[in-house]
Each structure stands twice: as structure tokens, then as C-alpha cells.
Specification:
The protein is an all-alpha fold. The chain contains 5 helices and no strands. It has helices at 21-31, 36-44, 59-81, 94-108, 114-120. The chain is elongated and about 70 Å long.
């Protein structure tokens, strides 16, 4: 009789990475490493496979809406000051300042969606 090696345990997320038990289950499902039995058991208790953003909507929808909100705040900044060079430590709207800095970094690294790049140009 041939014995097979015991299955290797799945790696757990590193402590402090912000990855929850729920996120790990979603990752296992996407990778196809979650058994049908476990999927069925999680389904039976109402496990939410799509991570929800604020307002209970899918996270990607929430991210798109959030991006649009910040873009509108940037438009208002431009109307007020005549440019879009939001200071990184602008005390009046620190969230906008951080968002603009993040967009700049994403643009430099080419990690920005082309449609969004066009809107920002």
C-alpha cells in the first residue's frame, strides 16, 4: 500500500497584515483550494463571498464611487485656486491632500487605470 504524504497546511497570513479570516477564505475560494464541503458549510451560515465596502455594496463599486468623490473635491479645489497642486499637508482637507499624493505616486508607477489618468490630465 502506498502512503501519500499528509497535505501541507495552508499558510496563514502574517500577523499584522490586516488580512482577516474571512479574507483568507475568499482567497482560498478564488484559488480553488477551498473544498466544496467547506464552501457548502460556509454558504449554509450565510458567508458573504463578496467583500462589502461601506454601505454594503461590493468593494469595487465603493472604491469607484470613492474615487469619483475625491475627483470632484479636486475639481472644486481647482475652481477655487486655479490649479491642482494640492499641498501634501493641506490642513483644510488632509484626505484630499493624501489622495492627490497617492494618485501622483500611482501615476509615476503606471499603476493607475487609463481612464482615471485621462480624467486627471
Amino acid at each position: 500500500m502506498t502512503r501519500s504524504a499528509p497535505p501541507r497546511p495552508r499558510p496563514l497570513p502574517a500577523p499584522g497584515t490586516g488580512t482577516s479570516w474571512y479574507d483568507v477564505r475568499r482567497q482560498f475560494l478564488r484559488k480553488g483550494t477551498l473544498s466544496p464541503e467547506r464552501v457548502a458549510r460556509l454558504d449554509s451560515i450565510g458567508f458573504e463571498w463578496e467583500k462589502a465596502g461601506l454601505g454594503g455594496q461590493p468593494i469595487e463599486v465603493w472604491r469607484q464611487q470613492r474615487w469619483g468623490e475625491f475627483f470632484q473635491r479636486l475639481v472644486a479645489f481647482k475652481e477655487r485656486f486655479g490649479h491642482v497642486q494640492v499641498p501634501q499637508r493641506w490642513s483644510e482637507d488632509r484626505e484630499l491632500a493624501t489622495w492627490v499624493a497617492d494618485q501622483r505616486k500611482s501615476g509615476v508607477k503606471n499603476h493607475i487605470i487609463p481612464e482615471r489618468r485621462e480624467q486627471l490630465e
